[in-house]
Design a protein that fits this description.
With 132 residues, this protein is of the alpha+beta class. The chain has helices at 26-35, 41-52, 113-131; strands at 3-7, 10-14, 19-22, 60-63, 66-70, 80-83, 87-92, 97-101, 106-109.
């Protein structure tokens, strides 16, 4: 999975080759993914807060291949969750940013490059902290 995008009818899950549209909430889909790990979204987030000491903007760790960070709050209608493990690089555009994935697909985002780069770097630090 490359990213999950919220839209008016539910969510769209993109893996680079195809996009799956689902009529469910983002948190409901994350709960489905986390049930395979024997937890729920709220339970995982509470455990990660306790384990890392981070309070806000916590990446969403699903398993070893999926760790998501968001472009906006999960409550926003146009939030996007990007899978850290699939990102090759982030490119600065004049007033926006682009995420380049390992399969060379590109996701243009309407957010400042510095903010996106900060979220990506923070997720990398978060994953290193989990390894220890």
């Amino acid at each position: 999975m490359h990213y999950i995008r919220k839209n008016a009818s539910g969510i769209a899950v993109t893996d680079g080759r195809a996009t799956k549209r689902l009529a469910c909430s983002l948190q409901g889909y994350l709960d489905t993914l986390l049930l395979a790990e024997l937890t729920t979204f709220e339970g995982r987030m509470a455990a990660l807060r306790k384990m890392t000491g981070m309070k806000r903007n916590l990446p969403i760790y699903i398993d070893d291949s999926i760790c998501l960070y968001t472009t906006k709050s999960l409550r926003e209608p146009d939030a996007i969750c990007i899978n850290f493990h699939r990102v090759l690089s982030i490119r600065d555009k004049k007033f926006s940013a682009e995420v380049i994935f390992k399969d060379l697909s590109i996701l243009p985002l309407d957010m400042p490059y510095r903010k996106l780069a900060h979220k990506h770097a923070k997720t990398a630090c978060f994953l290193k902290r989990l390894e220890n």
